[in-house]
Amino acid sequence: MSANYMSADEAVRLIENGDHVYIQGSTSTPETLCEALAKRGTELRDVTLYSAFAVCSREAPYCREEYKDAFKVQSFFVSNGVRRWIQEGYGSTIPRFLGEVPALMRDGTCRVDVALLNCSMPNEEGLVSFGVSADLATAAVECADRVIAQINPNMPFSYGDPVIHIDRLAAAVLVDEPLVEVPTATPSEEEIKIGNFIAEHIPDGATLQIGVGGIPNAVIRALHDHKNLGLHTEAMTDGVLPLLENGIIDNSMKKVMPGKSVASLALGSRNLYDYMDGNRDIIFKDVAWTNNPFVIAQNPKVVSINSCLEIDLTGQICADSIGTRIFSGIGGQHDFVYGSQLSEGGMSFLAMLSTTSKGVNKIKPTLTEGAGVVTTRFQTNYVVTEYGAVDLRGKDLAERAKLLISIAAPQFREELERAAAARFGYSFLRLK
Q: What pLDDT, in 10s, does the model give residues 179-230?
């Protein structure tokens, strides 16, 4: 076993003009390497930097105007580290279902020359794990001719796809860099109502995909009396720990990797990372596999739970943008909405508070101009707000409008009814 250890400044010397560089995401952005790379901003030119879903401790150091010709920032999911840079027009985003991004790398559409990783300490076999972020990193490592990694005692060793031998590293940099921690969101009273509405529909033996935030955590809190649940998800969070520790999630009814909790990335507290470390009952996989709807559908009773930003009266869901401004990305919402509905006994939930923090209605006659459709009206199943849960499956447009108005904030229902009557005519009026 050997490793090519060096300093971060020496390691990023392996990056050349014109290279395409993947930077690992989740809560494991290799920030020491990013700082070192940014210092080369006055000498490098036309280096493309790919990023995806990530929660960074600070804005990316290469997002500076003086480096705009050195680094071309392209993101598959707009994270906090690059959001300002992209909104100001210096960087951009590549629209793609997250589960399909690895194919862009593997077929050369998005070439990857270098992968920057944040890895665990090597085990006795010389294997290191890129722990909390298998997602796109798996494909990037497969495609890159140079892999540069931080070797970090704070990174948990997770099993599955994010494991490579240290000899595969072109450069290894010893760091002691804490992973970003994402506090468990405490659900509000309204979010607890939403969580209860969703939990009422979840049967024992269901396989869960749960998103991130207050509403998913409210759902988790409402599942304490359920039995034999499974976990096949994109993101693992602290919220599932009580369900795992109490045996509520035991993965006994799953058909795909029974007995194992499956995820593609993790973001949470140190408690979650410690629980993952060396835990063979948790498997992390390439997002092209975890998010494949036809893999998801092999499990019975798949329940997908995701959030959205706004919805129109026909059931079109926007989850990535505020008008024309791209705020985040599509992630795995579409993949799990589709996969859950292919699953025997499966269902999907798209949940949101009925209004924004400023009191703006989120159920609208039409989506805000420029808003992107993440889940089409052809796929929308349950929609949930603090006023209830409605099932749009099999409903015509007028029926959908009536159901959605019933879960809108009361002060907006009258104007929504007028809009629905004008749009759908007698087919809506006859429902009153």
A: 999 887 788 999 999 999 999 999 999 999 987 778 888 998 899 999 999 9
In the annotation, is 245 catalytic?
no
Catalytic residue among 234, 310, 386, 417: 234
Q: How many CB atoms lie within 10 A of CB 57?
A: 14
Question: Does 189-429 match 8-174 at the fold level?
Answer: yes
Measure the CA–CA gap between 397 and 427, rounded to whole angstroms: 9
**Beta-bridge mates of residue 118:** 150
Neighbours of 348 (CB within 10 A): 25
- DSSP assignment letter at 232: B
Residues 6+ apart with CB under 8 A from 100: 288
Residue 264 host element (H or E): none
Give the CATH class of 189-429: alpha beta
CA-nearest of 405, 348, 404 to 375 is: 348
Cα distances (angstroms) measured from residue 246 to each of 6, 121, 241, 266:
44, 30, 8, 20
Give residues with Cβ within 8 angstroms of 124, minimum separation 6.
none
Max CA distance (Å), the chain? 75
Which two three-digit tokens encode residue 292? 């494949």
Fold of 8-174: Glutaconate Coenzyme A-transferase (3.40.1080)
Q: How many CB atoms lie within 10 A of CB 316?
A: 22
